[in-house]
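Per your request, structure below.
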């Protein structure tokens, strides 16, 4: 693996922070320092926002032929594919995610997002409204301005692409702040954008802590909109900052996804789907299926099948393609996960242990945990753990299953498992969540909008119409053809 860019990327230049501070990026699987990178403060944020502002106000990007804009996005997608191995290894080393997942999911997904949104710019169009016969009323959709994009560490490259692809397709400029934990693939993305020829100031990447650089970014008067992915507590702080500056805000927050298994569901598929849903990326996924709802009559069989299969998952060195499970992203996050596990035991949840010979618990590693006898009021059933912890609950009938599923502050996603299509759709309509996966069909698609109900978010991520709505301004132009006589002051 070659060395990573380790400076801030502002106005197509690599620069150190004004204060010259550095931050060590850690490999959580080994504890080794991967790279020492520049750390931005409010001063650097100001420089980055001003560069993005100038690129938006005076530069070619928002005024460019939409097809040319799309071509650059497409070239970026191709560059990502050419650099798949390095990008995948970067996120694997940086957050402990298995290489089979970064190669198989994270990096291809990022490339697909840019490719998909490369087709959007020339499709963005307004409307013409029927008003008076001698009046032509048009609506234009115009690029919004400078967008501040703030993302977490769980899918470093993919989260950046989810934000950047629609933002750029809509003709905006952007200041991206990756998580302080995982900036390396965002720097690599910036390097690729330079190689394909993005104009100066269109993409800026600053690395800094949330409390300092993040807060300075959301409060900056030169930012037109904040788009954020992260914890709901941080999202609440964004709302306050957005309110002070009268800015638009898009929030993609946490989840507590229920998986309802109906008695007719094919159990082999259910077991694989439930295990993938909660243990992929060690549960550090906003849509992780952390609450399993099974019918009382099937509880024992489903639980024993899951426990046996989980015991066969291989956990260890994230760079080894044979391993299904890596480690948690930071020491600090492991402590959070352990606290939730201890709390669950105190509140009466019953840990059911899988065979541990393939798992690992030292350093930032944490083995999968399954809790049985979980009730909806327990902390483990209510709060987002963001770790490898499955809570098993039983329901009596369909109404009971829907009631338990909806008994949550979150509403990001839900899974339903059944062969009965009508019943699946009926339950899907009753469950309060922005995305419902029936029989495992929950993959992220660039053209499908992601909304969160309740505390899971505000606004939509992805989806073409929704992206245009989120990242462009509407302008109405009302054109009198000259024959209309003003009724006032006569
Ligand atoms: P976090 O909220 O702690 O941090 C996310 C980002 O916000 C980081 O870049 C951080 O530096 C920044 N930040 C923190 N405090 C800030 C502040 N005061 N002002 C500005 N920026 C600030 O979240 P995390 O722990 O990094 O990520 C995990 C969370 O992300 C989970 O809740 C997960 O569900 C959520 N998530 C949601 C989605 C989704 O699509 N809904 C996707 C991925 C992750």
């Amino acid at each position: 693996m070659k060395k990573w860019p380790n400076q801030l990327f502002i106005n197509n230049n690599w620069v150190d922070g004004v204060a010259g501070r550095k931050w060590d990026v850690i490999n959580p699987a080994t504890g080794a320092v991967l790279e020492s990178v520049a750390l931005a403060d409010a001063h650097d944020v100001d420089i980055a926002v001003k560069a993005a502002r100038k690129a938006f106000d005076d530069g070619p990007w928002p005024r460019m032929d939409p097809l040319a804009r799309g071509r650059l996005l497409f070239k970026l997608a191709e560059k990502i594919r050419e650099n798949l191995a390095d990008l995948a290894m970067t996120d694997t080393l940086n957050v402990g995610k298995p290489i089979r997942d970064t190669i198989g999911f994270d990096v291809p997904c990022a490339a697909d997002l840019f490719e998909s949104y490369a087709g959007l710019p020339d499709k963005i169009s307004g409307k013409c409204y029927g008003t008076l016969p001698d009046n032509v009323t048009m609506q234009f959709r115009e690029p919004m301005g400078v967008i501040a994009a703030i993302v977490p560490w769980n899918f470093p490259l993919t989260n950046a692409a989810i934000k950047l692809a629609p933002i750029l397709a809509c003709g905006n400029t952007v200041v991206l702040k990756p998580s302080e934990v995982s900036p390396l693939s965002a720097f690599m993305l910036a390097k690729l954008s330079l190689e394909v020829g993005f104009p100066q100031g269109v993409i800026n990447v600053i690395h800094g802590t949330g409390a300092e650089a993040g807060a300075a970014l959301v409060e900056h008067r030169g930012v037109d909109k904040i788009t954020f992915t992260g914890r709901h507590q941080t999202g609440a702080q964004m709302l306050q900052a957005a309110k002070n500056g009268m800015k638009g805000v898009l929030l993609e927050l946490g989840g507590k996804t229920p998986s309802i298994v109906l008695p007719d569901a094919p159990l082999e598929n259910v077991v694989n789907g439930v295990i993938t849903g909660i243990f992929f990326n060690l549960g550090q996924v906003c849509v992780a299926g952390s609450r399993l709802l099974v019918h009382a009559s099937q509880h024992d069989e489903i639980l024993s099948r899951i426990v046996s299969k989980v015991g066969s998952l291989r956990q260890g060195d994230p760079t080894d393609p044979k391993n299904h499970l890596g480690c948690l992203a930071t020491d600090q996050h492991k402590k959070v996960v352990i606290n939730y596990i201890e709390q669950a035991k105190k509140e009466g949840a019953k840990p059911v242990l899988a065979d541990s010979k393939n798992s690992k618990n030292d350093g930032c590693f944490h083995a999968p945990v399954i809790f049985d006898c979980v009730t909806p009021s327990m902390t483990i059933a209510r709060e987002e753990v963001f770790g490898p912890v499955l809570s098993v609950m039983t329901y009596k009938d369909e109404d009971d299953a829907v009631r338990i599923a909806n008994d949550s502050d979150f509403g990001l996603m839900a899974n339903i498992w059944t062969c009965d299509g009508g019943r699946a759709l009926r339950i899907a309509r009753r469950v309060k969540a922005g995305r419902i996966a029936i029989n495992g069909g929950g993959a992220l698609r660039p053209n499908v909008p992601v909304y969160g109900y309740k505390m899971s978010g505000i606004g939509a991520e992805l989806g073409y119409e929704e992206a245009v709505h989120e990242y462009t301004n509407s302008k109405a132009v009302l054109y009198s053809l000259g024959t209309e006589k003003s009724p006032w002051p006569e």
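The chain has two domains: 8-253+456-476, 258-438.

Regards,
D.
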